[in-house]
């Protein structure tokens, strides 16, 4: 989420999807939740529900998208203008739906080799919604399924909310599917190695004789401090991932550091430091002028990377005279895809 997208306060999970269509101009097209829809469902078929945050396909969809994030609460005009500007700067739409579908198709190519699986895509805040996917699964006769969020670390503000949407959809459609939930996969070797490869990609952008002076900054989406104080494992899991990635990439303790990014607009304290604040601090205190920035909590290129890092953080770096390199996100990296397929297949054995 970008700052403008983040709700000011957390509210109780609504068991029913909010009204999504303000008027016809805001109504999204409804892509299919089904991957390979012609594949027959048998008694042995395991459904796989892949979930991601969602994003608008056009700027015209932005009011409806923000209304969904804000549970129907109105969005101030200046916020709508700001966030629309952010998306316009990265091409006028979110690339997340396309990347998600490509990731799912690649994962299913692996899963089809080892079992009878049927894939579905559900988004938390835009079409095709998680509720749409659960309805289609019920209509297709799916009785057992694995649910996975395309986010490696667990938090009750992220992964748990996706899982609650599944449970609410089953109640709404009066259906029954036995779900096995993947909560996290932040230490899986394939994920760690794929992220360490991103570190190596970033370092390779600098001349060999300068690489010893390059500092690697690992980051992830910020959350309110209160969530961590309440025992949420998100921050601990991120640091566990970060240390494993740094070690796999062969970085010393002095060669890398940690920060957060994309904090929300609410007045409460958020986890920090923020990337745009951390870069000046590294420059002032340690004289660092070469940086590789990698967001380890995101698995595809989307607005929190393409705008928050490539535009906002890059602007800060340029003003400081720093060179900032941001390697591509995992997207359809074979190591990551293989990891997701393995995690799903292993979880399916519990059904």
Automatic annotation (TrEMBL):
Catalytic activity: heme b + 2 H(+) = protoporphyrin IX + Fe(2+); Fe-coproporphyrin III + 2 H(+) = coproporphyrin III + Fe(2+)
Coiled coil start-end: none
Signal peptide: none
Enzyme Commission number, as recorded: 4.98.1.1
Pathway linked to the protein: Porphyrin-containing compound metabolism; protoheme biosynthesis; protoheme from protoporphyrin-IX: step 1/1
Recorded GO MF terms: ferrochelatase activity; metal ion binding
GO cellular component: cytoplasm
Catalytic EC class: lyase
The keyword Cytoplasm belongs to this UniProt entry's keyword annotation: yes
Binding site for Fe(2+): 221, 304
Entry keyword set: Cytoplasm, Heme biosynthesis, Iron, Lyase, Metal-binding, Porphyrin biosynthesis
Family: Belongs to the ferrochelatase family.
Protein name, per record: Ferrochelatase
Protein's organism: Deinococcus radiophilus
């Amino acid at each position: 989420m970008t700052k403008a997208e983040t709700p000011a306060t957390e509210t109780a999970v609504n068991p029913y999807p909010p009204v999504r269509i303000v008027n016809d101009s805001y109504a999204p097209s409804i892509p299919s939740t089904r991957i390979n829809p012609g594949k027959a469902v048998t008694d042995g078929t395991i459904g796989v529900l892949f979930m991601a945050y969602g994003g608008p396909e056009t700027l015209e969809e932005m009011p409806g998208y923000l209304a969904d994030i804000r549970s129907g609460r109105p969005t101030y005009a200046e916020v709508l203008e700001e966030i629309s500007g952010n998306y316009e700067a990265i091409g006028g739409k979110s690339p997340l739906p396309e990347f998600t579908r490509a990731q799912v198709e690649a994962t299913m190519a692996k899963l089809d080799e080892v079992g009878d699986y049927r894939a579905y895509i559900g988004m938390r805040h835009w079409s095709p919604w998680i509720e749409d996917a659960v309805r289609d699964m019920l209509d297709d006769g799916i009785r057992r399924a694995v649910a996975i969020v395309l986010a490696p670390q667990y938090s009750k503000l992220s992964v748990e909310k996706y899982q609650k949407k599944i449970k609410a959809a089953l109640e709404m459609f009066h259906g029954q599917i036995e779900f096995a939930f993947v909560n996290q996969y932040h230490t899986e070797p394939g994920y760690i190695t794929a992220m360490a490869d991103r570190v190596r990609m970033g370092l390779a952008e600098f001349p060999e004789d300068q690489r010893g002076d390059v500092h690697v900054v690992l980051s992830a989406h910020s959350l309110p401090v209160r969530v961590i104080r309440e025992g949420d494992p998100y921050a601990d899991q991120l640091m566990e991932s970060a240390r494993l990635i740094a070690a796999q990439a062969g970085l010393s303790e002095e060669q890398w550091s940690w920060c957060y990014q994309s904090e929300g607009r609410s007045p409460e304290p958020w986890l920090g430091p923020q990337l745009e604040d951390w870069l000046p601090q590294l420059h002032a205190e340690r004289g660092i002028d070469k940086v590789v920035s990698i967001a380890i909590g995101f698995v595809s290129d989307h607005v929190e990377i393409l705008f928050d890092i490539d535009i906002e953080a890059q602007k800060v770096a340029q003003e400081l005279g720093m060179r900032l390199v941001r390697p591509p996100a995992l997207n359809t990296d074979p190591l990551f895809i293989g990891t997701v397929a393995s995690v799903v297949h292993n979880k399916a054995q519990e059904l």
